[in-house]
Specification:
Elements lengths: L5 E7 L2 E13 L2 E15 L6 E12 L4 E10 L5 E6 L5 E2 L5 H12 L22 H16 L14 H13 L3 H40 L7 H9 L4 H12 L33 H4 L5 H4 L7 E2 L3 E3 L5 E4 L2 E7 L4 E6 L2 E5 L2 E11 L5 E2 L2 E2 L2 E8 L5 E10 L4 H7 L9 E2 L4 E2 L11 E7 L7 E8 L3 E3 L1 H10 L16 E3 L1
Parallel strand pairs: 8-15, 9-24, 18-22, 18-23
Antiparallel strand pairs: 1-2, 2-3, 3-4, 4-5, 5-6, 5-7, 10-13, 11-12, 11-19, 11-20, 12-14, 13-14, 14-17, 15-16, 17-18, 21-22, 21-24
Amino acid sequence: MAAPIWQVILEENNKRIELDSTSIIRQGNFVEATGRVVLARPLIDQKTGEEYRIIEAATRYHCDNKSASTLRRIYKRDESAILREENLNVVELPVRAGTLDDKVLKEVCRLNGENAPNSTVNPTKISNSQPENPIKTNTLDENLNKNLEKPLSNIDNKTEKDIRPNFAKPRRTRAKRPQEPTLEQQKDLEELQNVAARLKAANEKLLKEELEKRKPKKVVAQVLPPPAKALKEKNSPKNWHQSVAQSVAEKKGGKASPQPKVLPQTLPRAPHDWAYGGKEGPAHWADLKESYRICRDGLRQSPIDIRNSIKGDLAPLALHYTPSAFRLVDLGYTLSVELENAGFLELENKRWVLQSAEFRRPGEEMVLGKRADMSLHLMHQALDGSRLIVAIALVEGRENPTLQTLWNAIPLERENFKETSKTIDFKNILPRNLGYFTYMGSLTFPPCTENVQWVILKEAQPVSLEQMKNFAFLYPENARPLQANNARIVKESR
């Protein structure tokens, strides 16, 4: 395999665009070439959290249709150190005029402009056919082969012809045709209209689904119980809260009417059609079910890397949490703390009922490129069905008594649950400083529902190394990778 010869196509804004002239291969109406972006300053890779300065991409171009599809990307720390590679699903997209891709496409197609449309360009071979003007044809072929095989720095050698004026001729010829620009513009317009129609249909479908979810909650006249309670009534014993109340009353020396013990008929568990690795991992969630497609197609997915936040005097978090009976459930992908009458918080004159709590390792939230060892998510819901999640970073330190109360109730069987007569108050696990970041995102597990408000507390809480190891034994890794920011607004309290 020949060593790459990088030709500078464009240099601006602390970046340089280069094309490997040895990689250009034409197959029918397509031209494959390898290009790269060299950055003046390194960026952070969202998947690995490490720095990179070079992105190489193998791309297939359609010179006639002015379209391109990326086949593979390679992220590099420098010229020799590869950070990671990724093969992409081939999707041919139109190249917009004036963009960076348009400049590369023109350069690639210019370098192949003199070749027949159904031939494969190979800089090491010369055609054996005898044209009508052998002197002119041989000179062009020789110049092409010499320039492709030599370093770019030698192309301008005065002893050899410069082939670039010859390659420019087809472009001038095409420009004289009055109908071609009109046809190309028509193709671009039709493609844009198709894309716009698909986006409109997808948005209308998502809006319809969201409205259908909210309809039942809006017609209920009485005060709704926390949704976590409704979930317990569906998947757990009907008199669970009564049995817990009886146990608490007996412990305090009071009297409570005896309640019959009712065993659950079905074990509450999470669906197992998705996972955090393998063929059912985050990269494939959208392909598992139609209802999971938003995991890939959504524009407000979580988690994200918190950067460039807007500081302001945000409304304070008014906490009204109370001690609550709880049940600890092993969902198969995390531990969930199901709560009963655990209180609520108020934010901007809206009340959010605390339903449950879940743990992630490592912490899903990233602030300025850094993740915590673990994170705790307090799941809230308002009467109108909207969701709010408070995220608390957990870092190694002293033992956390509130967390240990939960760890003591871990079920003996996987994907099972544990009843307890203890109570828990999540107010005790919150930091003193309630400064926070906030943005609009989604659930971090299927179906990845959007329109979720995230409140990420700035101050972390300590947990012991032993407590972290206990969770890691059950769930080595259950955090979703970072998602695209898509120019979302992130606010920060000051």
